[in-house]
Amino acid sequence: MADRPSGTVAAAASSGPGTISGNRGLMLEEPLIFEQGMAGRTAVDVPEVPKHQDRLGGLKRQNPIGLPGLSEPQVVRHYTRLSQKNYAIDMGVYPLGSCTMKHNPRLNEKAVRMPGLADLHPMQPVSTVQGALELIDTLAHWLKVLTGMPAVALSPAAGAHGELCGILAIRAAQVAKGDARKRILVPESAHGTNPATAAAAGYEVDPVPADARGRVDVAAFKAKLGPDVAGTMITNPNTCGLFENDIQELAAAIHSVGGYFYCDGANFNAIVGRVRPGDLGVDAMHINLHKTFSTPHGGGGPGAGPVVFSDALAPYAPVPYVVHGKGGFDLVEHDETGKAFGRLKGFHGQMGMFVRALAYMMSHGADGLRHVSGDAVLNANYLLAGLKDELTPAFEGTCMHEALFNDSFLDGTGVTTLDFAKAMIDEGYHPMTMYFPLVVHGALLMEPTETESRDALDRYIESVKGLAKRAKAGDKAYFEGCPYHTPRRRLDETLAARSPHLRWKPEEAKKAAE
Fold first, then answer.
1. Would you state the torsion angle of the CA atoms of residues 353, 354, 360, 362, taken in this order, to the nearest 10 degrees?
2. Domains in the chain: how many in total?
3. Do 275 and 404 reside in the same domain of the chain?
4. Could you tell me which residues come within 8 angstroms of residue 223 by beta carbon, excluding any fewer than 6 positions away?
């Protein structure tokens, strides 16, 4: 947020030469929405509320709610202008590694808006939602087939929520055996949610180092095993963009001490249709529907992170779940066996995500999904091959669906990974994932996804290589000033992180971090 007087526009806040209006062509400048607000202005006519006796028990609001007064055109223009300042998967290559910014096919969006699916209510009688339950059951069937696992819980609302589901099932299984264990082994290259989930479930997190190949160090893993180890959380393919070649050996090792194998399925997109995690010894694995099956990636409401289970953990899966009853499909809300660890959500899950994911599966078929994973891996290796002469790959050999580089190619230039990422913005690309995984110094993690054409990848490679050459040529000052062509220049991210202003207060407008 730029420092400026309330209700005014400061041309200097934008990144180009000054103009009278503060605008730069179609890059339109405007005050914040709260600065535009005016008492008495409204986009709708609301009738006067008749006098009545409230039941608030003395808690009635004493002051205005604080929302800005705006006309309808102001609201529309404000959010349209904000959208023009955002980069999106519908605008160009989105190389964000680890997060898998997949294209969302419009066929899926058409299906999810069909009457009977878009207007469902979670408290409808089961007899009126038989089609929806059949859809959920069909999705569950294909998730089990694709993973080689006998059971699935669809209620988790996201990948991290799915992790919690899997770990709670592991804890429930051990409690049922009267075997309370304390430790979870987690690779140092794991997604940050893995150790956080284990800690949230009451476990001690014991980190496992990677070997020189960027994979779990098997010897170090086995050395940490003991009777107090509840299980392990391993991402496969891992966050270095590599397949864990020793995955079956690791699974056998954890099982040998009575522990369970939780697999972070965030990168299932790289192996779907080719490898079944159940065949690798996995006991529980969440599936990010947005990463593998093209549902929207955040920002649009609840997501979905189904969890598949082995026979050993299936009895402990949470309720509710769909079953085939005498009169059709039914929803089991209470577990009569007493083994289920409980409930994760008030209702079954996110129906909109289920529809999109199943539409994606059915439109591709088994051969199509296999083709998707193949193209994802092909594109990543094309990117790796095209950039390895100017950038420095973190590990030798081919990668899976994402290519990882370290910052060695910037040694002696004075340019940092952050500087390089800011320069990519000026080239018209969202930056790759920076500084992750933590096991790689100055990491640059890139994932092109399967839908990018060779032409699009060639243009991206040309831009990245050009920036690398410019950095090596000694143009440090250029990189330190990037980005130059955005609505706002480089922010003071340290100040913003340490002293964030999260609530609008007019008297604090001038104090906001720039």
1. -170
2. 2
3. no
4. none
Q: Do 208 and 343 sit in the same domain of this protein?
A: yes
DSSP 169-195: HHHHHHHHTT----EEEEETTS-THHH
Vertex 321: Cα angle to 258 and 181 (nearest 5):
20
Domain annotation covers residue 72:
no
Do the beta carbons of residue 232 and residue 195 sit within 8 Å?
no
Same-domain check for residues 396 and 411: yes
Which amino acid belongs to residue 62? Q
Indicate the burial class of 44 (C-beta count within 10 angstroms; 0-12, 13-18, 19 or more): exposed
pLDDT number for residue 25: 84
From CA 324, how far away is CA 328, in angstroms rounded? 6
> Is residue 46 domain-resident?
no
- Tens digits of residue pLDDT in 200-223: 999 999 999 999 999 999 999 999
Residue 507, pLDDT score: 62
User: Does residue 424 share a domain with residue 328?
Assistant: no
Residues 120 and 198 in one domain: yes
Specify whether the CB–CB gap between 166 and 308 falls below 8 A: no
Tokens encoding 394: 């973190």
Tokens describing residue 218:
């098997």
Place 508 in a pLDDT band, splitting at 50, 70 and 90: low
Indicate if the pLDDT at residue 13 is higher than 50: no
Count of CB atoms within 10 A of residue 134's CB?
A: 14
Query: Do 350 and 417 share a domain, yes or no?
Result: no
Alpha-carbon distance of 75 to 81, in angstroms, equals 10
Distance of CA 45 to the CA centre of its chain: 40
Q: Is the pLDDT of residue 144 over 80?
A: yes
Dist. CA 123–CA 142, nearest whole Å: 26
What single string gives the DSSP state of each residue in 117-163? TTT--TTS-GGG-HHHHHHHHHHHHHHHHHHT-SEEE----SHHHHH
Q: Which residues contact 359 (CB under 8 A, 6 or more apart)?
A: 105, 107, 108, 111, 112
* pLDDT tens profile 73-132: 999 999 999 888 888 888 999 999 988 889 999 999 999 999 989 999 989 999 999 999
DSSP structural state of residue 442? T
| Mean pLDDT score of the chain | 91
Residue 12 placed within a domain: no
Q: Please indicate, yes or no, whether residues 246 and 290 belong to a single structural domain of this protein.
A: yes
The answer to whether the beta carbons of residues 256 and 317 sit under 8 Å apart is: no
Asked whether the predicted pLDDT for residue 294 surpasses 80, the reply is: yes
Q: Is 351 exposed, middle or buried (0-12, 13-18, 19+ CB in 10 A)?
A: buried
Whether 304 and 372 map to the same domain: the answer is no
Residue range of the domain that includes 432: 366-498
**CB 390, CB 465: distance < 8 Å:** yes
328-337 pLDDT tens trace: 999 999 988 8
